[in-house]
Amino acid sequence: MQYLKPEVRERIIKVATKEFMQKGFMDVNMRHLAKLSGITVGNIYRYFPSKERILDQILEEPSQQLIDLIAKTDYEIVGITIDERFNYSIKSLLKICEAYSTTVLILLTKVKGSKYEKVYHQVQAAVLERIKYEFKQIDDDLAEAITVATLASVVHILSKYHEQPKKLSLGLNKVIGYLFYQLDQRIAGKEN
User: pLDDT-based confidence at 180, cuts 50/70/90?
Assistant: First the structure.
């Protein structure tokens, strides 16, 4: 029996990440991944039984962190103000985006046809719920508009700067700051 080499496994993952990013899940196939990885088609299946399993390997950590963040209850972050709680959630989301920029971008935009294709809408629903919870005076249309703008902006910044960490961080902080700075006061009509 042939020994599975960690460096070959990592090369497959690296090649697949690039391919998923460029083509999306549906347009990637195992034969092409094997060729780009410099191994035979039969050998790639010894490392991963399917492209779904490769995608799982790539997305496991960032998707779990997003799920954990969304699932975090207010009881776990008690003793701080609404603004501090909301800022904590946003900063946690930004950290995940910064640490896993390419894989989060794949997760949010390149997974049609996979078990992950509903994640974008799940994140959107969670952000909307959080906005409505934190900003009780907000009307539904404004909450939905801010949610859509937030996710579209995050995806835009990730798309543009996923390989440039400093610009990514700056862009994400700017857009989130713009959307949420003193939002509670703006909603209440008390702008400074």
Answer: confident
Residues 6+ apart with CB under 8 A from 114: 25, 52, 55
Encoded tokens for 124: 């959107």
Instruction: Report the first-to-last Cα separation within the chain, whole angstroms.
Output: 71
Are 182 and 86 in contact, with CB atoms under 8 Å apart? no
DSSP classification of residue 27: G
Q: How many CB atoms lie within 10 A of CB 169?
A: 17
For the chain, the structural domain boundaries read: 6-188
**DSSP designation for 39:** S
Q: What is the pLDDT of residue 35?
A: 98
* CATH 1.10.357.20 given to domain 6-188: no
CA distances from 113 to 25, 85, 135 (A): 7, 35, 35
